[in-house]
Specification:
By secondary structure, this protein is an alpha+beta fold. The chain contains 5 helices and 4 strands. The protein starts with a helix and ends with a helix. The protein binds zinc ion (ZN). Zinc ion (ZN) binds next to loops.
């Protein structure tokens, strides 16, 4: 077998391998999407719980502050009753009044914090539902992936052995080029030369449609152990049946 024939055989096996893996790959992609969505819901969930704890801590500080104000106010009321001069009475009364204002502020802040906590609790409950739903979808996707992987396991193993055999006659530098091109072009590492006009000896690359000079075509057909890449799309060229026949006649 010539090098090009060996490569074409490998090309065919690679195509079968890729189409076999495609269903598993798409299932894998779907699992990945579900995992990312679930993760973002969980991140939001964690963030909300942190904020809830912060607001609860602030509420408890405010409660301590309110109790301090109440205690001080109580003492001042006693002082107020015992005040012996008008000046003393007014001084104490002023402080009582300013404490009243302070107490109102603390109450308002407490209300804001408690409302905030309620809102967080509601959002967390919504998120919990979404997380449960998303987890179900993810579990289903994982099961589908496992069953698809299982389905192709045997055929995949067989094809991989076949691939090993096909690569045996190919020099390592050619193999590397072939694999690189396959990685870049989703498996399409080779392109056929098609006959465009027999009389005018016009040929083109089947993949990128670039016109191929006749000397390229005769090199590909005449020296099948050489690698010729298309100038347009870089793929390894091989002659299609039609192109070959046209040359012979
Ligand atoms: Zn091309």
């Amino acid at each position: 077998m010539t090098l090009i024939e060996n490569l074409l055989a490998l090309f065919q096996v690679d195509r079968r391998l890729r189409s076999l893996r495609a269903r598993v790959d798409s299932a894998e992609t779907y699992v990945g999407i579900q995992q990312r969505q679930l993760q973002s819901l969980q991140d939001r969930h964690d963030e909300l719980l942190t904020r809830k704890r912060q607001r609860q801590a602030h509420t408890s500080n405010l409660e301590t502050e309110a109790a301090g104000i109440d205690e001080r106010t109580e003492k001042l009321r006693v002082e107020l009753n015992a005040a012996s001069t008008t000046r003393q009475y007014h001084a104490v009364l002023n402080e009582v009044n300013s404490l009243k204002d302070k107490r109102r502020e603390v109450d308002e802040q407490t209300l804001v914090e408690m409302t905030g906590v309620e809102e967080i609790v509601a959002e967390v409950a919504e998120l919990d539902e979404k997380i449960t739903e998303r987890t179900k979808v993810l579990d289903g996707a994982k099961a589908e992936l496992a069953s698809r992987s299982d389905e192709i396991k045997e055929s995949l193993a067989e094809l991989e052995i076949e691939r090993e055999q096909k690569t045996s006659g190919i020099p390592s530098d050619v193999q590397s080029l072939f694999d690189e091109l396959a990685a870049d072009f989703e498996g399409e590492s080779m392109a056929s030369i098609e006959l465009i006009d027999k009389r005018r000896r016009e040929y083109a690359c089947d993949t990128c449609n670039v016109h191929l000079p006749f000397d390229i075509v005769s090199r590909v057909t005449g020296r099948p152990d050489e690698i010729v890449q298309c100038k347009g799309c870089l793929r390894i060229l091989y002659a299609s049946e039609g192109a070959r026949e046209a040359l012979v006649k």
